[in-house]
Amino acid sequence: MPERLPRELRVLYELSRVVAVGPYSLEEVMERISAEVRSEFAFAGVRLVRGGDDQLLDAALAQRRAVVDGNRVAIPLLVEGRCLGYLVGDGCAGPIDGLDLHLLSAIGLVAGVFIAKAEQYEELQRALEELRRVDELKDQFVSVAAHELRMPVAVVYGIASTIHHRGAELSLEQIVDLRLALFEQSRRLRDLTEQLLDLSRLDSGRLSVETRSFHPRDVIEAVVPPDRLADVMIEVDPDCVLVSDPGAFERVVANLIVNALEYGRPPVLVRGRDGDGHYRLAVEDRGDGVPREFVPHLFERFTRAEESRRTRGAGLGLAIAHEFADAMGAELDYEPAEPRGARFVLALPVA
Questions:
Q1: Which of 22, 64, 183, 255 fits 321 for a cystine, CB–CB 3.0-4.6 Å?
Q2: 137-204 belongs to which CATH class?
Q3: Residue 321's closest CA among 270, 266, 212, 248?
Q4: Range 2-127 classified under CATH 3.30.450.40
Q5: d(CA 177, CA 168)
Q6: Which DSSP category does 137 fall into?
Q7: Domain locations in the chain?
C-alpha cells in the first residue's frame, strides 16, 4: 500500500509510522526523524537547531517553509504558529528542487508535532519524578519523625511519671540523675524538632533568603551549647561583618558544630578567613574523620557512617546544613583535617 502512494504521501506516511508508536524521549524522536529525512534526501547529517545567528534559519522562519542554500537546508518546525526550532540538513548529495522544499516543509510540520509531543512527554516525566521525590521525602519525613521522636518522648514521659508517682521515695542522688536525663532528652527533642522544621521549610519551598549585615562571631557564639563551651575554640575576628542571611548562616554553623561535638572529639576549632572573594568558615574536630567510602554520601539525608550509628541522631544535620548553604549561594565541602579529624568548610561569597 505505501509503495503505491505518491512520494510526498509515502514519505510522510513512513515518518509518521516510525515515530507515532511512542511515547519516546525527545532524543529518540529526533533520531527517528533524522534517520528518515537523511535516508530519503541523502543528507550527510540532520540535526535539531533551536536558533541562533544564522541567515538561513532567519529566512526559513520569515518564509515559514524550508529554504536551501547550496547543499544545506533549514526546515522550520512549526506548531500552532510557534517555531520550536529547525531541522538542518547538511551535505545533500543531490540538488534540492521546489518539490523537495515543499515536501521538506510538510515534514517540518509533521516533525514539529512529534517533537512538541516528545517535549510534553519529557516534561510530564519530570513532573512525575518530582512528585515521586516529594512523596518519598514525605514518607521519609513521617518515618524519621515517628522513629526518632518515639524514644525521647518515651524517656521524658517515663521520668515525669516516676517523679510524679514516686517522687517522695527517691533519694537526692536519684533526683539529680533523673533531672540530668530529663535535660538531655529534652535537648534531644528540641534539636530533632528544629531539624524536622528545617526539613519542612526546605521541602515546601518556604525558605526565603533575607540578606543583611551581621557579625559571624556573634552568631557562632550563640549556637555553641552552653555545657560544651570549653570544647569549642572560636578564631573569628569579632569585627568581621558579613552580608548574607544570618538565619541560614546560623543553621549551617549550628549543625556543623553539633555534628563535630557529636561524632568527633574536642577541641572543635571554628576558624574564619577571607580570600579569593569568599569568606571561608572552617569547623574541624580531632576525631577519626569520615571514612573515605562514606564521603560521597555525607550530605545525603538519613545517612550515617557505620561507625556513627551507635550515637544518637537521625542523619539530618549535614544534609540540612548543605541545603541552607545552597540557599545562601554558598558552598559546603568536606576535607580531612590535619593531623586527624574532620573539617567542613563553608565558602560564602563576599559582597
A1: 255
A2: mainly alpha
A3: 248
A4: yes
A5: 15
A6: H
A7: 2-127, 137-204, 212-349
